[in-house]
Amino acid sequence: MSSAGRRTLVYAIIAIIVIAAVGGSAYYLMRPRKPKVIKVGAIFPLTGALAEAGKLQKYATEWAVGEINEAGGIKSLGGAKIEVVWGDTECDPSVASSEAVRLITAEKVVCVVGAYMSACTKTVSDSCEKYKTPCLNPLSTSPALTMRGLKWFFRLTGHDALFCKQHWDFIKELNEEKGLGLKTFATMEEDTEWGVKSGEAYIEYGKAAGFEHLIDVRYHRGAASLDSEVAKLKEANPDIICLTMYTPDAILFVKTMYKLGFHPKIIIAQDVGFVHPSYKKEVGEMGYWIMSREVFNWDLATVSPKIKAKADEYKAKYGVDLEGCAARTYVAWHVLALALEEAGKEANPWKDLDGFRAALRDALENLEITPEEWADLPWAITTYDGVKFGGLRTGEAGQNIKAWGIIVQMFDDGKYYTVYPEKYATKKAVAPIPW
Amino acid sequence: MRALRMIKAELSTKAGRIFNAAAIVAVILPLVVRDQFFINAMMLVYMYSIIALAWNLMNGYTGLLSFGHAVFFGIGAYTLMLLLYRGVTPWIGMLLGGLLSAGFAFLLGVPFSRLRSHWFALGTLVLGEIFLIVFANWRAVGGALGLDQPRRLLLSPPSIYWLNYARPTPYYYLALGILGLELLLLYAILNSRPGYFFQAIREDEEAAMASGINVTLYKCISMAISGFFTGVAGGIYTVRFGYIDPYAVFSMMRISVYPVIAGLIGGVYSLIGPIIGSLIFVPTAEYLRAIVGGTLGSRFQGVHFASFGIVLLIISMRIPEGLMGWLEMRGLLKPLMSSGGGSDER
Amino acid sequence: MVDLWLLGQATTSGLLLGCIYAVVALGLSLIWGVMEIVNFAHGDFLMLSMYLSYFLFTYLGLDPLIGSILGFLMGLALGLIVEKGLIEKVLGSPPIVTILVTFSVLLIIRYGAMAAWGPGVKTLHPWYFMAILDLWGVRISMAYLIGALISLAATIALHIFLKKTYTGIALRATSQNRLAAELLGIDARKMYTLSFCIGVALVGLAGGVLSTFYYVIPEVGGRFCMLSFVIVVLGGFGSLLGTFLGGLIIGVAEEISAIFIPPVMKDVVAFIIFLLILMLKPSGLFGEVAR
Fold first, then answer.
1. Which pTM value belongs to this model?
2. Which of A78, A170, B104, C229 is spaced 20 to 30 Å from B89 by Cα?
3. What's the pLDDT tens digit per position in A152-176?
4. CATH number assigned to the domain covering B2-340
5. Which residues of B touch C119 (CB under 8 A)?
6. Dihedral sign, CA of B100, B106, B107, B113?
7. Which pLDDT does position B296 carry in this prediction?
8. Of C38, C115, C271, which is closest to B118 when you measure between CB atoms?
């Protein structure tokens, strides 16, 4: 091709690219709009290390929103349906932040539900605060999130410090009831924000309950071996061990504990790794008698008919058992629906998005569900005592101060049974562990 | 100055005219496009371009392949945040972050300069991991909890002094501005004595030494300059996102590897190559994640990473000289400040 | 003062674990030594082999040690495909290209596995994991012992192969000086293919061993790949004995350091050893002088 011809070709290609870009953008901007829906953003870890949990949160969201929409949507807004707009945190806080920005500004959601990993929730809630959009968090348990005095952030689940306090209340009770004479404890956690904070809370409340803290072992997530870590624990010989781990490390830990012959009298864990379906499936007899915090357990269905009904429904739809992530996410969407109803009475999202977001925020702040009301609501399947968010002037701004958890223990049939609090317990806790 | 004359000369070539047009578009883009996600994505493109350019100074021009640029990025990020706590404006924080990174990079060069390609790459890779673990367990700088921006900044009205805006647009211009500065500076440096020395080192280290070039010194200088800009990029990240933690800023996948991929796609033998690479790669990554992450089932979660792998494979096997290199070889375009490519018979 | 038991337990675990790390690194050492390329996807071949063991155990009841052998064969096949299909084509290119090719293979394998089998954790419990040997309070899992023995056997087998068989000697000749080897009639390309295949086969063997006590997730390759790099550099490229000893040193260093410093830092210890070796003696403890 001649030099002139080549130049023309290059210009032609550039021209085509420009025209395509312009045309594409024009189409995008002018595409036909769909009927009126209320867009709500959902930011979860759909990929990355925590994707398993993200999958369950996705199920729960689809389930809850399906129910809400089928029951007639948000009536105060003319029966408008909720449309979920998805965002993926990729388990990275900056990605989560970008996603939040996208959902708020491009997709114009009225509110954001999410995230899971506390570090991601931090940046998502920061973005929401800057853009004055309510952020409802169903799952993150880092205490730090509600200590920042944010106006637009609401967390429905309990946080680790609250749960740790519950753990120690339980252990103290158990110790006295059974005359176990337990005195010492050790902690082991991963070196992430969640791990560190949980470990600190364990230590603080453990000491407050009168126990002596012997040693804290911190490990790097995904370690190739935990031999020395567990050997250190065995050496210190604590009566109680408090664990904060994700699933792979939980499995490795349990195997190592067995291998090295580390036999504490009580093992208690901070949920997550120890209650994950993969863990339960794979751990076998090495997981017996380990206790964990939970926010939901299958045997709640034997105690409460409405939980049974919902658990069966979930299992039929999605093929997995209902557990804490899904249950809390499901409940969060229903709580949001209540708030949307209230907000819909004051403002209109399609005419004044900012006004509606503010109204939604107020609705969440003023929302209150008493324990009695909670017991009656068919979708209230978590063990909270209702809903009430701490006010801005309290130390727990945006925290649902009624969000309690339960303690479960794995019995020798490989299943977790609820052992605390009494009103939900199906079995009495076994302690010390019968090695 | 000679450099200015050369710049004028470069800009009147075909590539130069395209560059001019692109620069003008970049400047007026936020005024025309309102989509914040898009502006945010472009800001990230510029931020990654800054890193990629800096990285390529070491790789394409001095022959030092680094897989650990996250180290410089993280140092810059932490410096800015820690100074912010002491009430220092992020403008100074960014500068000091860059200088600290540069200083560290320079010192690193002393022992690292004797390492050749694979060993240098592995050494930097491992260094990145060390920094991650150390920072994740160093209480004094926040440890695993990371560092939040000071709360009053989050809640106070936006200002240029504190760079605490809600929308991405100001950060867009910040990143663009710094990118422009970096381009000018790198252009000037590469056309001066140190620049020629860098390329001499890349071509044949022994010959360079034999000609009297102090190889170690110039490698250190190259690393220092590279570290400086990467550290500044870390600062941009910090002011934009307001929260840093070791897993994010010392991330191997996100910070160290991204510029490598961008450089490869765009072409490492020109100044513009890494920018073009970032332009192609970063929006693709962002949008792919938005589409794939949201729609496909949970089994297919990693699909977009797998597709990066396929794309990367094809490019590294078919067009290892990158887009700019390919265009140059076809005679379609001579990129700005092309270094003529290296013949790497090592 | 530190309990003698603790030290003894750590040292024993470290030595056994080190043997197993060594067999994981063996393949990398071979490929690096002969072809001078760094196989970033090394850990992900390991991961594939671990999944193979898991499936064989769970669905067919096959012992993971048999899984190792099948993993070895799978490694041969995979190595052949990857080498002939990809690596061979980029052998003459600058290092960044081969690095990126193996890195893309990493991405494809790792995230393809995640898409295929989901991100959930899987483990298997062979009977000999549960069997514990107790020596004066120091507890050793049979799985570790068997793994270490296999590792030793593999190293010795490789050593004999390289020193005593004609093909092995040809491999070593190619690694020392390609030009001279070709002049002597050795087909260098065949040698490259062979070394890559054996390298991946070895890591396939290692996968079966690891699966007896470690968990299986798509990302499992990452940590072991890093450790392998460290071990190979420590031991010296070109030296099998070096790699084996390197594995032992790293295993022991990690476990013992975890006693004295916060265990999170034990990887840092391994990495610092790596950097020191890089700076002070890049050819490693036993390596030939770098060309």
1. 0.83
2. B104
3. 999 999 888 889 989 999 999 999 9
4. 1.10.3470
5. 301-302
6. positive
7. 58
8. C38
